[in-house]
Amino acid sequence: MSIKNDEIARIFSEIGDYLEMQGVAFKPRAYQRAAVVIAGLTEEAADIYKKGGLRALEEIPGVGASIAEKIEELIKTGRLGYYQNLKNKVPVKLSELRAVEGLGPRHIKFLYQKLGIKNLQDLEEAAEQGKIRKLVGFGTKSEEKILKSIQFLKKSGGRFLLNEVLTQAREIEERLKRLPGVGKTAIAGSLRRRKETIGDIDILVTVSTKSATNKVADFFASMPEVVTIFAKGPTKSMVKLKSSLDADLRVVPEKSYGAALSYFTGSKEHNVCLRELAIKKSWKLNEYGLFAVGGRGKTERWLAGRTEEEIYQKLGLVYIEPELREMTGEIEAAQADQLPKLIGYNDLRGDLQVQTNWSDGQHSIEAMGRAAAALGLEYILITDHSQRLAMAHGLDEKRVLEQLKEIDRVNDRFKKAGIKLVILKGSECDILKDGRMDLPDQLLAKLDIVGGSIHSHFKLSRSEQTERLVRAMTNPQVDIIFHPTGRLINRREPYDLDIDRVIEVAKATGTVLEVNAFPDRLDLKDEHIRRCVAAGVKLVVSSDSHSTNHFSVLEYGLAQARRGWAEKSNVINAWPLEKMKSMIKHGRR
DNA sequence: GCCGTTTTCGGCCCGACTGTTTTCAGTCG
User: Residue A257 CA to B6 C1' — how many Å?
Assistant: First the structure.
């Protein structure tokens, strides 16, 4: 059992914190950087080591001789002496304490030395007993802040689903937009990068006058949903909302809009790289602009900053879409002008997973069709559950045959009514424990497109689960695998799967893999999508709608596809009906 | 500890805000 990248990354990140505690210079950053890079690798470090040894590990950016040896030790023994030694000196639960807002490595060490605080519980008790306010460097406010943060940590995991946060952020942005003196507004941060979970809201505003600056900050801090004001200044304010989300507001002059947007969009690692590119040209990049630094660092000449595009251009890069700014190769690709032309948010022509009231959906086939047509879609695939999913009123053979007739009737009605949407016949057919399908092949052959799903036996071993999917994909009747990893964000881990083998077999069999757009699924996830794109596996972005108002979630699936570097050509339902059909097994037979 | 279209040695991203401070350290993004 070899160590996973996430675990290696966690250990290096903690090493960074421990070195920070000791006041060591520069080393902490080296370890933190290595941690971020390793967490973002698409291949396991253990596999890299197996193939190429220490030398291959050193090829990883941010990994030199010393860190490579530490990775080797972790792979071979599962432990790291260097890390243990550091941990023994300050034996605290870093993962718990670091989650407390405003508590960094220095304070954690200080609290351990003075009060013996090792974990969240110790910290809460000390704060409640008023012990922290007496320490040098702390006060009553620090103590209150710690207690509040602990309350929050207990209540939520600290990360929210993309859709929840995006909705709130858009509402706030709309209100800010209407304030006098406000120019441009933008949602920045991980929200703009459309990460699948979000820690807080970042909103950027430009103003034309000084007086407007303060008015914007005042307005922001006094919004009805604000429960706590962490900070309030002319350029930066931070609040907590009733939803227990944190929201940050940044105010900059018009001239700095692009620089600020770039800066506040992140990711942090991406920004550091942009700044380093600026330094190489003897320039300086900050949230106010790109500057040439003149004689003896005294004078500064403004070079760019009004738009993100001009900053990227000056730095020798083509524009990089926010969803790509994760420091996973986008800078190099931009330098070589080899970035993908990402699928657009308006590029979908159809939706290939739609449930109706024939199984567990809320609305009729016709109602779902009309709702999809109203959004401009050209086709939908009806995919009610199959018989095994009795809980969801799954369809048996007899009812599938009835439904086919009903779909014909609805298509006729649409044609007569001039509704330009075609309803296709499909199924979300259960993949049984052994990989066989829940409905007979002769029946599946009558459908336009068949999707297979795993809804049971989540705990099979990795090899059993993988072979189960492989068998389904090898079935010529199965065109798509729906929500391939089965995870529910913040609620259920994915089942154990050899995803690379799944991708390989998908390629070999011409099976399409789904990017399920439902915000708590987003399954496949971005890194898997990227591997599919690289392997030439076709994808479908579908809504899994169970109601007429669910089609809007397609936006999140598209965001996920973009984060996975997918182009229009990779996503079959971005194509016209006939071409889409030609891309699936049923269409080719 | 890492890294190199100026460097294999000498650099390493930068600014805002808070709290407890009489000038700054710590944290955050």
Answer: 33
Whether nucleic acid strand B comes within 7 Å of the CB of A246, the answer is: yes
pLDDT per position as a tens digit, A142-152:
898 888 888 87
Number of domains in chain A: 4
State the pLDDT at residue A390: 79
**pTM for the whole structure:** 0.84
Cα–Cα distance list, A412 to A249, A366, A382, A383 (Å): 53, 11, 16, 19
Q: Which residue approaches B18 most closely, CA to C1'?
A: A231
Is A554 found in the same domain as A513? yes
SS3 A147: helix
pLDDT digits (tens, 9 = 90+) for A361-388: 888 999 999 999 999 999 999 999 999 8
Residue with CA nearest B28 C1'? Answer: A102
The pair of three-digit structure tokens given for residue A435, joined into one six-digit string:
């990989």
Phi-psi region of A472 (alpha: psi -120 to 50; beta: other; left: phi over 0): alpha
Q: Which of A251, A273, A300 is the last residue of a domain?
A: A251
Domain CATH code at residue A277: 3.30.210.10
Q: Report residue A582's pLDDT band, with 50, 70 and 90 as the boundaries.
A: very high
* Cα A429 to Cα A558: distance, rounded to the nearest angstrom: 24
Instruction: Report pLDDT digits (tens) over A206-232.
Output: 998 877 888 899 999 999 989 888 888
Nucleotide nearest A189 (Cα, C1'): B29
* C1' (B9) to CA (A238) span, angstroms: 42
> Is A571 in a helix, a strand, or coil?
strand
Domain range for A238 is 160-251
Distance in angstroms (rounded) separating the CA atoms of residues A585 and A473: 11
Strand order in the sheet with A236-241: A182-188, A200-207, A246-253, A236-241, A226-232
B strand bases under 7 Å from protein CB: 1-3, 5-6, 11-21, 25-29
Q: Judge contact between A484 and A523, C-beta under 8 A.
A: yes
The residues of A between 406 and 465 with beta carbon within 7 Å of nucleic strand B are: none
Q: Residue A32 pLDDT > 70, yes or no?
A: yes
pLDDT at position A294 over 80 = no
